[in-house]
Amino acid sequence: MIELKNLSMSYPMRQERLQILTDVNLTITQGETVAIIGPSGSGKTTLLLLLAGLEQAESGEIKLINESLGTMDHDQLADLRRDHLGIVFQSFHLIPSLTALNNVSLPLEIAGQKDARLKARQMLNKVDLQERADHFPSQLSGGEQQRVAIARALVHSPKLVLADEPTGNLDLHTGDRITELLFTLNEESGSTMVMVTHDEQIAKRCQRVLRLHQGQLVEDEHHALPA
Ligand SMILES: Nc1ncnc2c1ncn2[C@@H]1O[C@H](COP(=O)(O)OP(=O)(O)O)[C@@H](O)[C@H]1O
Ligand SMILES: [Mg+2]
């Protein structure tokens, strides 16, 4: 599902470059749930953006679903995201001028699906927001907004779900509910999930735990499979 070969990434700084990833190699197979854990500033978001084709690697190769991102142009990357990726951001990224329902149906409408609104409604039911379908993001709590964002990310049954600290802007209790929801929906669909977090408890729920530190990804050994 995901293959990283000698992936390196750095950002320009005044004097030298800020090294984020150094020669990272990683294989993630279909259906796996993988946590990327690391302190703030370690490059977790950068890694997810690279996986989503939203940021360009400095060197090395990123393969998603047997396609090498480096060989794809802007439109091809957008198509790949539309067809196969679901992305959940820390700060929800809903479109403020659209209702919850329209936020969820938009990706389906862009993809030209006929029953977009019906599917969006079903997905809103799954995240228990049927009563909020006609509310705008500003009329929803943080937890509700994130549930809409999750519904939007999963409505087209993506093969790969990328989540960037999805509970980072939520209180503890709401965050726990969101985590629960993400894992439940992921289990139902059998999609691959890469979850970026700095929370050990959330990381433990994943089958694999990878730690990002000084540009290297190191996997926890003997990580017990979640029950
Ligand atoms: N577009 C960018 N240009 C320059 N530096 C960046 C850019 N994006 C992130 N950084 C820097 O790269 C480092 C890693 O950022 P990030 O991937 O957001 O870390 P994390 O998500 O783990 O907190 C940080 O020091 C950040 O300031
Ligand atoms: Mg981040």
Q: Classify the secondary structure makeup into a structural class.
A: alpha/beta
List each distinct ligand once.
Answer: adenosine-5'-diphosphate, magnesium ion
Mean pLDDT: 93
Based on DSSP secondary structure assignment, what is the total number of beta strands? 10
- State the major sheet: 6 strands, mixed
Task: Give the helix proportion (percent range).
Answer: 25-40%
Which consecutive residue ranges, at least 5 long each, have pLDDT under 50?
none
Strand order of the largest sheet: 6-7-8-3-9-10
Written as H for each helix and E for each strand, in order along the chain, the element string is EEEHEEHEHHHEHEHEE
Rg calc? 17 Å
Global outline: globular
Number of helices: 7
How many angstroms separate the termini? 23 Å
Oligomer description: single chain
Determine the strand fraction and express it as a percent band: 25-35%
Q: What is shown here, in short?
A:
The chain is α/β, with parallel strands linked by helices. The protein is built from seven helices and ten strands. Helix content is 34%, strand content 27%.
